[in-house]
Write a structure and sequence with these properties.
It comes from Geodermatophilus arenarius. The chain is an alpha+beta fold and 143 residues long. The chain contains four helices and six strands. The protein is 28% helix and 37% strand.
């Protein structure tokens, strides 16, 4: 797939997929060899796993809202700050049951775009703060 969209337009389509709770739309923004990673993952996800990741998060937070707060485009790169809000009323992998608590998590995504779509998204957010908002105890063990 060769895209005629600018990096900013592709980033907006990516953001809209998250807002629409549409994992397939998010994944469709990526090049075949594109990857997504954030602090909750052990490593980068390939394009083929991105829809499942988005859909899993939306299942855990059915009222999930992604709000883009600021965005800067620089050539083939887009940087945007966001706020993710929602209630954990569905199963979140690794937890025994939904916490029924709300979270309000700020973060930043760095997006790199190539001729075939997004080649890489690196997301940053406070994972410890996220789990604490859900009422979960977080122990930090020195490495």
């Amino acid at each position: 797939m060769t895209t005629t969209l600018s990096a900013a337009e592709l980033a907006e389509r990516y953001q809209r997929g998250w807002s629409d709770h549409d994992g397939d739309a998010v994944a469709a923004c990526f090049a075949d060899d594109g990857t997504y990673v954030d602090p909750s993952l052990p490593g980068p996800l390939p394009r083929t796993a991105i829809a499942g990741y988005v859909n899993g998060l939306v299942s855990a937070f059915p009222d999930l809202v992604l709000t883009v707060e600021d965005q800067v485009s620089e050539g083939s790169r887009v940087y945007f700050s966001w706020r993710l809000q929602g209630t954990n009323s569905g199963v979140l992998p690794g937890l025994p049951a939904p916490t029924q608590r709300r979270c309000d998590v700020p973060g930043v995504d760095l997006i790199e775009v190539g001729p075939d779509g997004i080649t890489r998204v690196v997301g940053y957010f406070d994972q410890k703060g996220f789990f604490e908002q859900l009422g979960l105890r977080v122990d930090v063990v020195p490495g």
